[in-house]
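The following block was generated as part of the benchmark described in Methods. Ligand: adenosine monophosphate.
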Amino acid sequence: MRIFSGIQPTGEKHLGNYIGAIRQYVASQEEAEPVICIVDLHSITVAYDPEDLRESTLSLAALLIASGLEPDRCTLFVQSHNPDHAQGAWLLSTVASFGELRRMVQFKDKSEQQEFISVGLFTYPVLQAADILLYQTDAVPVGEDQRQHVELTRDIAERFNSRYGETLVVPKVVTPKLGAKILDLQEPTKKMSTTGGTAQGTVQMLDEPDVIRKKIKSAVTDSGREVRRGEGKEGIENLISIMSVATGEEPEAIESRYEGAGYGDFKADVAEAVVELLAPIRARYRELRDEPAELHRLLAVGAEKARAASGPTLATMYERMGFARP
Ligand code: AMP
Ligand code: TRP
């Protein structure tokens, strides 16, 4: 069973990234050796600062390890360290159609936020398909917002196989039962996001405990008084999901525990649960971040493992597509 996922090094990582994605990567180490890719080539598709990219690539590696990824039990690497991704993306760009890419919701959203809309932003999902398909991936753990990209990846794999013969594994998307879409605390109709959400409504994984408490205590809820999930109670439901993930308690158990309690007490407890969840990650992150040489070493080992895994697939793709190769 091959598990692969990617995460962008730009933008701070927030509680939604942790709950929807990172937590799944860590858990998947129990069943398989997941391949986790820091997708720096994807990050240059929108306006960015080169110095920040360099910094945030190392920071994200530290954050992922601090969150529980163990370099001995997974393949953790940086996308640009394995040139197969860029090559695979070019080959696959001839197997994806303009019309398919034009329907991608993430492209529509992100292009609205950009003054300069790069061709790379448009073909972003083709690079993502190459990431996934080069590793003969069976399962892709992601948050709900990435489902459409993984479905496109499946279509691309099937089309490649029917044109050139059975070559690529068609992957499945895996989203967590709880928390596949964590909502912004201030606007609980939108997903929590560094670019599209509100600053106050986004808990960053590296926020100080007091900042976390403040953000959660001021979360927007509803005019009712019941700690329950349901229609019109998106804010409370979101907090129940967050608490459930942080404490391991089922949502039903949380609802009955808070029967008759006010929103104030509930929010204070959610805040403490999140502080407890993130504080050890933050502490480990700080230690790791102080050792850039060690991070570089771990990423070099990861890149080597990644190249060994993707190389044979890329070679077969070239061959099936008719390239003259020695
Ligand atoms: P990104 O930081 O955009 O590379 O996203 C990394 C991962 O986090 C992807 O698998 C996303 O689906 C997931 N993700 C992003 N935002 C949320 C959210 N609000 N709730 C749950 N998962 C999310
Ligand atoms: N597009 C994904 C995101 O924004 C990141 C990503 C790139 C990815 N390549 C991937 C996710 C491959 C899963 C598999 O979150």
